[in-house]
Specification:
- The protein is an alpha/beta fold.
- The chain has 2 domains: 171 residues, Quinone Oxidoreductase, Chain A, domain 1 (Alpha-Beta Complex), CATH 3.90.180.10; 138 residues, Rossmann fold, CATH 3.40.50.720.
- 28% of the residues lie in helices and 26% in strands.
- The strands form 3 sheets. Strands 3, 5, 6, 7, 8, 15 and 16 form a 7-stranded mixed sheet that branches. A 6-stranded parallel sheet has the order 11-10-9-12-13-14, sandwiched between helices. It has a 3-stranded antiparallel sheet with strand order 2-1-4, with no helix packed on it.
- Helix 7 links the parallel strand 12 and strand 13.
- It starts with a strand and ends with a strand.
């Protein structure tokens, strides 16, 4: 079968379409899935460009959508022909984060081989059903970006109707945040350096857009839009380069979900300001399998569909990563085969 593999020490030029042995029949409690599509995330880019070291020949990509091709003894959740989507933490069934999700040792495309292959064999716990009627590329957007947005707003954030959410940028997580927030009855402020993207975000349901190049101290604009109160929930995707402005933007007693590190992995936190705001700053990475199943149920009930900017063929994954790194995308980028 064909698979997208990475040679050490990484780098987009070291991504190859490799011919490798296809997996055999699934064992007890395992399923074999014919993977048809994946979607790109910042974590995948860091693995691919060598920023996160991995084993030589690693099969890339954490997200995968496909069809169950065979089932082993004891499988109860799936049958042949089911459309499924992979889990980012296959070892995390439900509840609070477990010690085993403190790193990426069991995450596809990082600590273990990923989903960029024509077939994979995994325990049934490594997948959930995909939303009915979705394409495989659409389903592949759920694993990382979609579930992260769901957990931030619903599982941890407990967003209520009338709450104001601030989300940074217009990538896959932020666009999904807008969609989920609107079905929850919340208001959304979105930031971008592009007025054109801000207008597109408003058409999706965002209430306000703030251009962070025009308003370099964009927290002042957020406070103005919230009549001096601040946002109830902030989806913080930038990391150290934006965290201070996010803390200025949050209301007293509000919630900041620290999801991304697009501006770096370390930096100063204005602790006195955070303390004065009495805000909750919570780091989070994706969610559990139960969270994903509940998210799929919500997607089906509300007929939400992901926003996909571009879809590339399997052989052009490096070009897809280059497009992702440019920051030009609006929503998700996918690859399919």
């Amino acid at each position: 079968m064909k698979a997208l593999t990475l040679k050490t020490p990484g780098g987009l030029e070291n991504i190859s379409v490799s011919d490798i042995p296809a997996p055999g029949a699934p064992g007890p409690n395992q399923i074999r899935v014919a993977i048809k599509a994946s979607s790109l995330n910042f974590h995948d880019l860091l693995v691919a460009n060598g920023s996160i070291p991995t084993e030589d020949g690693r099969i890339l990509m954490s997200d995968g959508g496909g069809i169950v091709d065979a089932v082993g003894d004891g499988v109860t959740d799936f049958q042949v022909g089911d459309s499924v989507v992979s889990c980012f933490f296959p070892q995390w069934p439900a509840g609070a984060p477990m010690a085993s999700v403190g790193n990426f040792a069991n995450t596809p495309g990082d600590g273990i081989d990923g989903m960029a292959a024509e077939f994979v064999v995994r325990d049934q716990s490594a997948f959930t059903l995909a939303p009915k009627g979705w394409s495989h590329a659409q389903a592949a957007t759920i694993t990382t970006a979609g579930l992260t947005a769901w957990r931030a707003l619903v599982v941890d954030g407990k967003v209520k109707p009338g709450d104001t959410i601030l989300t940074l940028g217009t990538g896959g997580v932020s666009i999904t945040v807008i969609q989920i927030a609107k079905i929850l009855g919340a208001k959304v402020i979105v930031t971008s350096s592009s007025d054109e993207k801000l207008e597109r975000a408003k058409k999706l349901g965002a209430d306000h857009g703030v251009n962070y190049r025009t308003h370099t101290q964009w927290s002042k604009k957020v406070m103005e839009l919230t009549e001096g109160k601040g946002a109830d929930h902030i989806i913080e995707l930038g990391g150290p380069g934006t965290l201070e402005q996010s803390i200025h933007s949050v209301r007293v007693g509000g919630h900041i979900s620290l999801i991304g590190v697009l501006t770096g992995r370390s930096g100063e936190v204005p602790t006195a300001l955070l303390m004065a705001k009495q805000a909750r700053l919570q780091g989070l990475i994706v969610g559990s399998r139960r969270d994903q199943r509940e998210y799929v149920t919500a997607l089906e009930a509300n007929q939400i569909q992901p926003v996909i900017d571009k879809t590339y063929p399997m052989e052009e994954l490096a070009a897809a990563f280059e497009y992702q790194a440019s920051g030009s995308h609006f929503g998700k980028i996918c690859v399919e085969w």
